[in-house]
Design brief:
The structure is a homodimer of 89-residue chains. Chain A is elongated. The relative contact order of chain A is 0.34. Chain A has one domain: Phosphoribosylformylglycinamidine synthase subunit PurS (Mth169, Chain: A). With 89 residues, chain A is an alpha+beta fold. In chain A, strands 2-1-3 form a 3-stranded antiparallel sheet. At the A-B interface, α1, β2 and α2 of A face α1, β2 and α2 of B.
Chain lengths: 89, 89
């Protein structure tokens, strides 16, 4: 049975995120044209990996994807991740 | 009142995602490890931007963040995005 898994990987809070800082600066200085977004703070940029996984239950798929995230998709020293699994509709 | 907004940006389904294809190949062969994940397919890699936005309601913040995503964070020609907003706990 196919499941859709989504792994979201972000830098840990304690790690500086220069890409997020750059995005925040761009948003505040209206790099987009005629508007700016001064009410924005704490911008952090991460990556998300969506995959289709064949498995018997959402729990078993989640366990499998956690192994995968821990070993390959994320660097646990610097990054933290969340895993969401739902049946593929 | 502060809200936490999360913008997830992925390539449109019709656009090739070479990074996702590379990740899929790596997962299936798990180069440099003792396990592999053959049950995986349709890997796509995107980016996620988390931001703290000051606003009066979740709806108004969502509208604002959609403008921002449309104009700055995503390229609507090639990418699609989703916006989630929740009160900052």
């Amino acid at each position: 049975m196919p499941f859709k898994a989504k792994v979201t990987v972000m830098f840990r809070k304690s790690i500086l995120d220069p890409q997020g800082a750059a995005v925040e600066r761009a948003l505040k200085s209206h790099a987009g044209g005629d508007i700016s977004f001064p009410d924005i703070s704490s911008v952090r940029v991460g990556k998300v990996v969506e995959l289709t996984v064949d498995g018997t239950s959402a729990e078993s798929v989640k366990e499998k994807v956690k192994v995968l995230a821990d070993r390959i998709l994320a660097n646990p020293v610097m990054e933290e991740y969340t895993v969401d699994v739902e049946p593929l509709s």
